[in-house]
Design a protein that fits this description.
Layout (H helix, E strand, L loop, with lengths): L1 H15 L21 H10 L5 H14 L3 H5 L3 H8 L5 H18 L8 H4 L7 H12 L8 H10 L7 H11 L5 H14 L1 E2 L2 E2 L11 H12 L6
Antiparallel strand pairs: 1-2
The structure holds iron/sulfur cluster.
Length: 230
């Protein structure tokens, strides 16, 4: 049954990737028992859009080393913020979103990041992935946070058969027990970065190969010969 399969997949991956990650922060030295600060996770997740984790970390460090609080960012010159977040790409767009986010949070939410998905979705550059990431990693609320790795790997494994991350989110919510929802992003992202690499999955060293439709169907030789997975 697929519920048992996804639980076993998460169990095995949790032994390999202790702790997992959230955008903008390395797993090294990280206590697996979060939560992290909601405001930092929100900003880091906005910065993480369409860039790699290393770039997100550099941009986050630049920003928070210069402006340590929501109030300071809200009052900052957006052009200066853009220079600080430039390593994450789309500096003007991300700077404007972050400064506007801070102003909205201060004016409408008393400086507190809301926990309801619908309220998070009203913030600039906050979509379902970012909202779920904040709820999961910063607030400890079970959420399925679907990024490109989660969407791609869930389909490769045959856990879902979906076309969009949003479809994947709902399909995984149906499939996995609620208390495992947050583990899905935590472990599949690391798996996608280290083993199930886009276009070059290393199936022969994968601890969940016997539970993965693609790994079973194609075998390690074909996968590692560089054939692009479906
Ligand atoms: S068996 Fe291959 S395709 Fe399947 S999860 Fe592992 S690395 Fe990815």
């Amino acid at each position: 049954m697929d519920t048992e399969r996804i639980c076993e997949i998460l169990n095995r991956l949790s032994e390999v990737y202790v702790g997992g990650v959230y955008p903008g922060r390395s797993s090294e030295g990280l206590n697996p028992e979060w939560p992290a600060d909601p405001f930092h996770v929100l900003v880091a997740t906005i910065l993480s859009q369409r860039t790699k984790d290393d770039n997100t970390r550099r941009a986050s460090d630049n920003l928070f080393n210069r402006f340590g609080t929501m109030e300071a960012i809200a009052a900052a010159d957006p052009d200066e913020v853009a220079e600080l977040v430039r390593p994450a790409g789309f500096p003007k767009q991300k700077s404007k979103a972050i400064v506007d986010c801070c102003r909205i949070l201060l004016e409408e939410h008393g400086g507190v990041v809301p926990s309801e998905t619908e309220e998070l979705l009203e913030l600039p550059m906050v979509g379902r992935k970012t909202a779920a990431c904040v709820r999961s990693y910063a607030m400890g609320i079970p959420s399925v946070c679907v990024d490109t790795h989660v969407h791609r790997i869930s389909n490769l494994m045959g856990l879902v058969s979906t076309k969009t991350p949003e479809e994947t989110e709902y399909a995984l919510m149906d499939l996995a027990p609620r208390d495992r929802w947050s583990d899905i992003n935590r472990y599949l992202v690391r798996h996608g970065q280290e083993t199930c690499i886009p276009n070059h999955p290393r199936c022969s060293r994968c601890v969940v190969r016997d539970l993965c439709d693609y790994g079973i169907r194609r075998g390690s030789t074909a996968a590692e010969a560089g054939r692009t997975p479906p």
